[in-house]
Amino acid sequence: MISLTGLAIGILADARQLDEYTNSKGLGYSTFEIDTLSDLPPALEATRKSLINNTQSLKQLTLGPTSLLLETLFTFNDLVALRFIYSHRIPSYVPLAGTITYTALSHSTGISPTLLRRFIQAAMLNRVFSEPKVGEIQHTAISRLLATDPEAMDTVGFLIEDLAPASTKVIEAHKKWPGSEEPNETGFNVENSTSDPFYLEFAKTPERSRRFGAGMRFMTRGSLYSLSHLITGYDWAALDKLIGPGTVVDIGGGHGAVSVALAKQFRNIKFVVEDLPGTVKEGEKLLEEGLRGQVEFREHDFFTDQPVKGADIYFFRFILHNWSDVYATEILRRLLPAMKEGSKVVIYEFLLPDGATEKWTEKQGRNLDMISATGWNSLERTTSDWATLFAGVDPRYMFLGTRTPAGSSVSLIEAEFRLLKDR
Ligand SMILES: C[S@@+](CC[C@H](N)C(=O)[O-])C[C@H]1O[C@@H](n2cnc3c(N)ncnc32)[C@H](O)[C@@H]1O
């Protein structure tokens, strides 16, 4: 057990380090007006995490159980305020420098000054806009981002207009379809009154699809998601040295983002990017001239037998977390007839810890897991989940384990095809 003072002492030491860093960079102290702590060196990233986790614990302890429970229960108000700001495009009406009064904002938006004041002041608690003088609004770093970066605004829209309402229907979906692993029996299906799965439903409304795509790009920006972790975090060089050459099949590879990045680094590995017809055509069009021959696109539905025989690696990024165990099993089973002794399945996905964690910096994994439940009836898996999944597909799959490259949000999960006589 640690005392409030003990937590505060740790916080003081971490805060001092970050202050010294921003001062040494000529940024002064951290402020809500500009982003002073982006792109920290790796050692200070650990300090940032420790500061976030300890301040959160300190705050939760200090609130006490009743206030903490009520604070959690009232978080829906945070989203309502943000939804108001999103749907009325408020960030675009506030000057990037200086202030605007509620009355002036009312003239440009057509919304009453009282409504504006109430919803914007609610959002200010989360540092979206500030009021340096009574009645005058100015941008903070967050609201400025919403004003200047369309993908940030699209992320708000996707999460608040599409996912949050669907999440309120998850329990109804569980009651309607108890124990379902079907991708079209979810909170998203109840909310949208549709029997089509998530992506098919989105495809009906181009604007919704576009907003989803922009949101995904925004949320995977930055070093935590950088493909450099995948490039350096796995021994691709061993495959590159093979005389033969080595082959990687990038299943559900989209437009080939992963294969293209790897192909540039490892010029002797051949990549086959498989996806559904429209995506494959787009990918082929986008492929750089210099990579033709090394990267090939091929139509393939991963619920049918794998056509590329004897590849060294069958690779999946951000695929299996969209599918419940029944479907993930089928996808992995369809690889078996194509695999040779030593063929590997390499998966690049989020990995949840086996046990619970209260660390605030690990909340993102929980968020993603809840989203998987809301939209797909799928899950973010733990190392034990992966081991159980492979064991249930076929005894020839030998689960090799999981690894998270330093500084990465995404982990490697690996299994090998071994004939039973080798065990
Ligand atoms: C979340 S994206 C991941 C794309 C890529 N792996 C990446 O990480 O950039 C999922 C991909 O799976 C593809 N997909 C969905 N169902 C599929 C199926 N039955 N067979 C093959 N690909 C499929 C989609 O077209 C999409 O490109």
UniProtKB/TrEMBL annotation:
Lineage, opening ranks: Eukaryota, Fungi, Dikarya, Ascomycota, Pezizomycotina
Protein name: O-methyltransferase C-terminal domain-containing protein
Record's keyword terms, sorted: Methyltransferase, S-adenosyl-L-methionine, Transferase
O-methyltransferase C-terminal domain location: 229-391
Molecular function GO terms recorded: O-methyltransferase activity
GO biological process: one example: methylation
Record carries keyword S-adenosyl-L-methionine: yes
Domain of life of the organism encoding this protein: Eukaryota
Pfam families, A to Z: Methyltransf_2
